[in-house]
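Agenda item 2: adenosine-5'-diphosphate complex prediction
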Amino acid sequence: EKIPTLAQLFKLAVIKAVEKPKFPIDSMLLDRISLFQGDITQLSVDSIVNAANKSLLGGGGVDGAIHAAAGKDLLDECRGLNGCETGESKVTKGYRLPSKHIIHTVGPIYSSRDIETKAAQLASCYRTSLELAAKSSLKHIAFPSISTGIYGYPIKDATHIALNEVRQFVATEPGSTLERVIFVVWSNKDRDVYQDLLPEYFPPS
Ligand code: ADP
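Presented output:
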């Protein structure tokens, strides 16, 4: 399948829906790769990704927001998962979220030492999440900007990794069930970084 053109990509690439709870995906007129600015817990899609920690038992940032919105049943399922290694991913149901599934992935804690390992681990978060979504026959996956909050990964470096992994997956797995990959940003700064870098990875045809 063809990678979307720049025109397609930016047709409705940035959607502000913070004020619209449980924003239904179909009304977003999304293309295969999209950028969404707002709260990931409000998306109504097949799967959202949680930037979790190794315990999978909840934390701050997007992890806290997802657990708060999904409810206690999520924590119960997570207790049975025995944690998760950095760079790996595990799937649960979405419980009270509008999204059906949650893919929990554990990003690296950034440090300027051993950047190559950190980069490989972050790339692995995206790759294993995409693989898990495809294996679970899911049609959509929405990613927050993994590791760039509390875990301190520089946003530009992390965005290059995210876009590269998704492009790679979309280009090499044309038969996968994934129809839509949505990058979810919270801040204006992160949105600007994604808007700048998206055309490098999903160029106009
Ligand atoms: P990490 O520990 O992996 O760094 P954080 O949750 O601290 O994860 O941050 C990851 C990104 O998620 C940050 O860009 C943060 O602004 C963003 N974020 C926090 N809450 C939400 C939310 N409800 N929806 C979408 N993104 C969020």
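Discussion summary: Helices lie at 6-11, 61-70, 72-79, 115-135, 155-172, 188-201.
Owner for follow-up: CH.
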